[in-house]
UniProtKB/TrEMBL annotation:
Domain of life: Bacteria
Annotated keywords: Lipoprotein
Entry protein name: Gliding motility lipoprotein GldD
InterPro entries, alphabetized: GldD-like (IPR019850)
Length: 201
């Protein structure tokens, strides 16, 4: 009799588990990403060894440019916590209008290369608080560079910058970090000053 009780109990337990498993709605777990810790904005100035200055994040490292075609006064501003990098290039213009046009054309071409993957490229021409002309390009979609800019006084100085993330995480998931970096870059642009005119030929 005890054996029958055990069998009946076991059968009842299996039935309950089966019913519960059939009626319970299955919800797949969303794909998880590491939580991004965005530090409070805090800034410092570039060193005196450069012909330009702006305020950049205290949470970033100032590095020499690491590209194969690097030139003097090219730098990288690296954010270790976000795996983000702002690549800055600089050219003295020497009042050369042809050179200015070439640099603007090059910057446009570099941005346009992302059109294949970009769902949108929003470009704005604006004037900084100190009167410099800036072209701001925001790129949407799964692009390697989400934010690019040029700033010039059209006479002596030309600067270009581009944001990159060294991560495989999709841009949708990086959205808070991208927005954070855009604000930091705009702070760089708005505090940019040329220390001296570009050297004459």
């Amino acid at each position: 009799m005890s054996g029958k009780s055990i069998n009946i109990f076991g059968l009842g337990l299996i039935t309950v588990l089966f019913v519960n498993s059939c009626t319970r709605e299955y919800l797949p777990k969303p794909l998880g990403y590491n939580r991004l810790e965005l530090p409070e904005p805090a800034y410092t100035s570039l060193p005196d060894s450069l012909p330009y200055t702006f305020e950049y994040s205290k949470h970033a490292r100032l590095l020499p440019d690491s590209s194969r075609i690097r030139e003097k006064y090219w730098i990288e501003i690296y954010y270790p916590a976000l795996k983000a990098n702002v690549h800055i290039t600089y050219k003295p213009l020497h009042r050369d209008e042809t050179l200015l046009k070439e640099l603007l054309d090059d910057a446009y071409t570099l941005t346009a290369k992302h059109q294949i993957k970009a769902s949108a490229i929003n470009e704005v021409i604006t004037t900084t608080p100190t009167g410099k002309t800036a072209v701001i390009a925001e790129l949407e979609g799964e692009v390697p560079s989400q934010f690019q800019f040029t700033v010039t006084d059209s006479v002596n100085n030309f600067m270009r910058g581009a944001l990159y993330f060294n991560t495989q995480v999709a841009n949708d998931s990086l959205a808070p970090a991208i927005d954070y970096m855009k604000k930091d870059i705009m702070h760089m642009i708005n505090t940019l000053a040329w220390k001296k005119p570009g050297p004459s030929i």
